[in-house]
Amino acid sequence: MRINMFHRGLMAGTALLIASCAQSPSKNINTEFNSVTIDKVFKDIKDDTPGCILGVIKDGALVFQKGYGLANLEHSIPITTDTVFRIASTSKQFTAMSTIILAEEGQISLDDNIRKYVPEMPDYGKIITIRNLINHTSGIRDFLTLFFLKGFKDQDYYTEVEFLEMLARQKELDFTPGEKMSYSNSGYILQSIIIQRVTGKTLAEYAKEKIFDPLKMKNTHFHNDIKHLVKNRAYGYWPDKKGGYNVGGTPQELIGDGGVFTTIADLALYDLDFYEGKVWRPAVKEQMITPGVLNDGSPAAFFPDIFYAGGLIIGKQRGLPYVRHAGQFAGFITDFIRFPEQKLSVTALCNGGDLDAVGFTGKVSDIFLESHYIEAKSSQEKETTEKQVNQKKISSETLNAISGKYYNSDLDVIYKIVKNGKTFDLLIGKRPTKITFEELNLPVFDLGDDVLGNEYIKIKIIRDKEGQVTALNFTDFSVVKNLYFERVNK
């Protein structure tokens, strides 16, 4: 494999980061602060709304923790330091760590073909490794997007069998494994399945044995049983259109991509071990914080200069290296950011889906790190240019031509295109689920060359020799590409 100079530099930097975490004393951080300064960050959270718990961890110890808002709106239960939160995709690091520990024990290799353990997956003629699943470089389509496109919602239930059946229906990958990085929750559910098939234990059981119990994280678990009572739990909420809130729960018992419930105090224990190394042993840590490598030798980039490793995102905030992961699901939104050189971590766990956990951790970390930053703060007044999209309205002729029913075998679903004034709506499935692009603030335009869409979705119109529409190809829909819908009789 060719390793370019940029990747060599990145790997060297990662090695230094690992060494500094294990050996160096933390850089002096001023922990003398006015709590009022932190309170101002959360000033918009009221006593009767969903909110957050904030934790600031220095050298593995909580130096600040405080709850804002309510854990339960119906019973007016406030968020406290004992409140248990669902942490959504912030859970991925625990799944990746479990998989890496399993490999460290010699029970699997991260370079094994996943079909060795999950033969239900199609043979695409290219090997997909467990490492590809960890680094989001597999090319496997994101199952949450697939189920959404089939008409499912967060509150709908589907099983592991249905998950595997959905993936087995996919006739192609979005890209060759290792060619690029594209976030896919599917890879983390597959890791959970592999762990269970190899060990005979669920991911919940395995993570408890290998991570949570050794670190005495007594209030942390993978929530794979919705009947399981969780003391002091927060409930997730989404704002409604009337100025109130709806419960944002989910009946899902699939875990791996998310599913961890935890507290601020337990995350502090986990953070302390990042430096002490009981579970975060050197071999485990190296795999966890080393970015994945693409086929061309470059690192798996989430965004420019931001890389994906073992369920963790590796980057820099104003010149200071960080290790982090955020998450959002079922009305919860979370962020956990660690600055290893300073041995400072900041986490915000929130139960309002419209709250900005990443913004909160950024502002709070600024309070502690302002004098340590290497780079100047980016100007908020910089002129930003949105992705330019040709905003030509769709003609009535085109709307009439595409109206009708279309079938996709990858999803086993029928889409109905219905003209709605100067645009169209999607009716998905038999129930059906209705997608109105205007209401989602995602208007669809005529992009030219028989392509409709916006910056998030592209739909190619397929016509026969007479110009009649025979199919629609959703060439780009979030993290799923090239879904072909064939026109069917009305």
UniProtKB/TrEMBL annotation:
PROSITE patterns, sorted: PROKAR_LIPOPROTEIN (PS51257)
Pfam family of the protein (one): Beta-lactamase
Superkingdom assignment: Bacteria
InterPro entries: AmpC-like, Beta-lactam-related, Beta-lactam/transpept-like
Domain Beta-lactamase-related: residue ranges: 39-354
Entry-linked PANTHER family: BETA-LACTAMASE-RELATED DOMAIN-CONTAINING PROTEIN (PTHR46825:SF9), D-ALANYL-D-ALANINE-CARBOXYPEPTIDASE/ENDOPEPTIDASE AMPH (PTHR46825)
Protein name: Penicillin-binding protein
Organism: Paremcibacter congregatus
